[in-house]
Amino acid sequence: MGVPVHPAPTTASVLEELRAELGADRVTLRRNLPGEYAFPVTDEALAPGVGSLRDERTVDLRTQPVVALLQQGEQVVQDDSRAAFGDPAFHRMLDTYGGLAAQIVTPIFVDGRLEAIVSLHQLGEPRAWSDADTGACRLAAERVRELL
Fold first, then answer.
1. Apex 67 CA angle, 133 and 134, nearest 5
2. How far is CA 6 from the centre of its chain?
3. How far apart (Å, rounded) are the C-alpha atoms in residues 109 and 35?
4. Quick check: 24 and 47 in contact, CB under 8 A?
5. What is the DSSP string of 106-126?
6. Is this model's pTM higher than 0.90 or not?
7. What would the pLDDT profile of 77-121 be if each residue is shown by its tens digit?
8. Which pLDDT score is estimated for 9?
9. Nearest to 121 by CA among 53, 49, 24
10. Which whole number is the average pLDDT over 36-52?
């Protein structure tokens, strides 16, 4: 019997592990890629029945308050996303993203520049996130950064 071979991690596997570990509805990876749309979803992990954001292009992330905080290096933790900001565009985004109710959004910086974003989504109802939850998101973001 040989030593079991474990496949090398991929961004998709890191996202799915995080989604499963925290019982989230969706985890996305957005990348800072050239093009007209800022930070498109390049990878995602979805719970059964949850809609994909991979082709969603109606939300302009450049105007979203969460992205402004990420640019400052902050991890954004929202137990109740509807209560987080009064901005109408932010509330439209929550609806467009399938009733986004709570989220943890973690920036990935490379050479001092925001290069990617890992977002963990809870749909439907608010959710209280723990320090362990936010730590798991930071660890997953670091693992993704190493794969970029």
1. 10
2. 26
3. 19
4. yes
5. EEEEETTEEEEEEEEEEESS-
6. yes
7. 999 999 999 999 999 999 999 999 999 999 999 999 999 999 999
8. 82
9. 24
10. 95
Helix and strand totals (H; E) in the chain: 4, 5
Phi, psi for residue 12 in degrees, rounded to 5: -60, -40
Token pair in block for residue 102? 């709570």
Distance separating alpha carbons of residues 33 and 26, to the nearest angstrom = 21
CA–CA–CA angle 58, 41, 12 (5° rounding): 155
Beta strand 100-110 with 113-123 is antiparallel
Dist CA 25 CA 23 (whole Å): 7
CA 17 – CA 40 distance, rounded (Å): 21
Give the type of residue at 6.
Answer: H
The first and second tokens of residue 134, run together, are 């936010």
Burial letters 16-32, b for 16+ CB under 10 A, else e: bbbbebbebbbbbbbbe
Full strand arrangement of the beta sheet holding 26-31: 41-46, 26-31, 113-123, 100-110, 76-78
pLDDT for res 118 = 98
